[in-house]
Prior knowledge:
Elements: H1 3-13, H2 21-31, H3 34-40, H4 54-62, E1 65-66, E2 73-75, H5 77-81, H6 86-99, E3 102-106, H7 112-127, H8 130-134, E4 143-146, E5 161-165, H9 183-207, H10 214-217, E6 224-231, E7 241-246, E8 252-257, E9 263-267, E10 270-273, E11 281-285, H11 287-292, E12 302-305, E13 312-319, E14 328-329, E15 347-348, H12 349-356
Parallel strand pairs: 1-10, 2-3
Antiparallel strand pairs: 3-11, 4-5, 5-6, 6-13, 7-12, 8-11, 8-13, 9-10, 9-12, 14-15
Helix pairs in contact: 1-2, 6-9, 7-9
Amino acid sequence: MDHKTDISACQESSVAVNYNREEELKAFDDSKAGVKGLIDAGVTKVPKIFIRSPEEIAEELARRKSTDLQIPVIDISDIVRGSEGREKVVNEIWIASEEWGFFQVVNHGIPQNVLDGMIDGVRMFHDQDPEIKKALYDRAKKVRFETNYDLYRSKSASWRDTLTIYNLASDQLGPDEVPPVCRATTMEYMKHVTNLGNTLFELLSEVLGLNHDHLNALECGRDHTLLCHYYPACPEPELTLGADKHSDPTFLTVLLQNQLGGLQVMHKNQWIDVQPISEGLVVNIGVLLQMISNDKFKSVDHRVVASLAGPRISVACFFVGVVSPPTPYGPIEELISVENPPLYKDFLVSDYFAKFFSRALDKSRVDDYKI
């Protein structure tokens, strides 16, 4: 049976009397075609494996949603140019990091053509022949095509496909392992976003009252992983999500996205839409930075809603510190005192990852490390 027939079976089983979730999950996974494969096969209804529970949908309708609030937007042109105004930028990042855990940066120095090239490269990867992508469909590969790493553990699958490029900055992965269709644009973007990450870690160090090079000296931004997400148009977006609520297993995340929107941030018990800004990049505090800052910074839940419009394309650059060799991290000594004792145990990034990937995306792991 060809993979198109398999995918169609996923759709049909969503209305079958004898619904077997495990069988439908396996049929979808075995197709290796992802969510885009469902759309290409002509589905007009969301298969049942993606549908949220009635209770979750009801809670969604009851929850307040603000249209007035927006995450802070910070112009860092003075930092990029090396001109005056650093104190103002540091103060804005301080407020954004403590109150929101999210902000957008503009005038960050990455050329528009580099941003556009990265988005176009991701689009071309996901739009190419499914047989090429199937060769990368393996959750054990460092460079892989996948849909829902937690497919068999989540309550409902998410409406997205992902090209994951793991540990791109280390010597464990060569540029020639990046798919040819997006290799040049990815490597160019990585050069720029790495420099931006170093700048952001300097500013965040100053926010914490530390020397400007403190977080970079801890190599919080040494290893990078790129998650290149593709969210196809969804025929019934109210029934599913593009990404379930979660906080990132990173020190810092820098997100590039196209202009379709869909990202939401939890703030004061309500979901806030993050409106895309031309040339803007979304920055959020990761759980690992929350722990070493001893809760001076907070990593907050966020998610992506599904949409009739698509595809939404985003590229999350995860700055994950030193994965190998094993390097212990813990609350920064300068931030600890009798009045502010450590709140977290020391940890290895690799151990945190192991816990993160062993559970569904929406399950918190930070409590595992609280003292």
